């Protein structure tokens, strides 16, 4: 009740939620109370969790931030949602996002913008901006986001909370509405690294209903951190961190971001982490390759929203083709239409090899860069975004500038690696700044330990 009251007080201004399921949350909270009183022990019993509105929830509308799905109510829960419920969590509501997760500021939502709780004139980042803002404003206890090219880590960074993108395949995506299937991953947005580890223990694991879900054991992330806690002074000793030289010389890197990064780097050094310089030579091409691959996959995934099977249909059409056209041009926002057009073009006969084919070759080279780097170090560290949160409206008319802000985050997705964002300081204007830690595939533990070392 307290949390719902807080949402009612704050959220008309912040706009972090699209749907608050007050009745459902109260019902499951009452049930959790009874189970707690009966002595039941479950990892998340009674914990209020917010979900990015791209995850299907049975009986609760799932909009993907799009007018085309404004009234779509799924008949099933995504696997992660079911797992959370089975662990006793109370699902409090569905958070705002850039339409179909396409964006870096949550300004592309089909419903409303979300404001950054630290400064209401600034964006919260995106696309999981609603989840990060809800977390930062204390309107949930933990949240889930999705990360295709930084959408968990960048909003976490801009809102001063922790965000973790797990290894590709670690978390089932059954019931997640697809954006770019070879890149999408679900992960936690939390107050601190310990909560992220706790959520990871719950949400990771093989799911036969997602053919890309990896059949690997889930380590006990929580106890990895707890054992570390007993011996905090020495347990990062021997860890090697690589700093990509191409990242640090990126044009437009804000001096406050650089200073906060360097301070945090020293904190890790003081705990025994050895720093080395590494090279990720494809960095310059990562944004271009990502913005071919992601829209290409999106153009294929979004073909299903045709006005026949799901959601909105324009009823003033004269025939079938006219109905497709009107439904898609009214139902999808400008950014989504831009991506569908770019993606369809990149995949079309005659252009496929020049665009999509070439982008996938860059992607393989990015993967190789990382495999080489991880022969020399255990983790790679960098800023999360080149600047702190920017002003609302500042980049809306300039998609290219917006895309370039993803430079530090999207290579991780291209290589399928895990990445963590932890708060590491503030800008001179008082906006939070995040620190990024990346690791090799299925190697989240050193990344969580180093993140914990920074807290
Ligand atoms: N900003 C990136 C994009 O617009 C990443 C989004 C995401 O990770 N979902 O595609």
UniProtKB/TrEMBL annotation:
Gene Ontology molecular-function annotations: ATP binding; glutaminyl-tRNA synthase (glutamine-hydrolyzing) activity; transferase activity
A cellular component term, taken from the record's GO annotations: glutamyl-tRNA(Gln) amidotransferase complex
Source species taxonomy: Bacteria, Pseudomonadati, Thermodesulfobacteriota, Desulfobacteria, Desulfobacterales
Gene Ontology BP, a term: translation
Role, per record: Allows the formation of correctly charged Gln-tRNA(Gln) through the transamidation of misacylated Glu-tRNA(Gln) in organisms which lack glutaminyl-tRNA synthetase. The reaction takes place in the presence of glutamine and ATP through an activated gamma-phospho-Glu-tRNA(Gln).
Gene name of the record: gatA
Quaternary data: Heterotrimer of A, B and C subunits.
Sequence ranges assigned to domain Amidase in this UniProt record: 1-447
This enzyme's EC code(s): 6.3.5.7
EC primary class: ligase
Keyword field: ATP-binding, Ligase, Nucleotide-binding, Protein biosynthesis, Transferase
SUPFAM superfamilies: Amidase signature (AS) enzymes
UniProt keyword Nucleotide-binding present: yes
Organism the protein comes from: Desulfamplus magnetovallimortis
Family: Belongs to the amidase family. GatA subfamily.
Signal peptide as annotated in the record: none
Protein name as catalogued: Glutamyl-tRNA(Gln) amidotransferase subunit A
Pfam family, any one: Amidase
Catalytic activity annotation: L-glutamyl-tRNA(Gln) + L-glutamine + ATP + H2O = L-glutaminyl-tRNA(Gln) + L-glutamate + ADP + phosphate + H(+)
Active site: 52, 127, 151
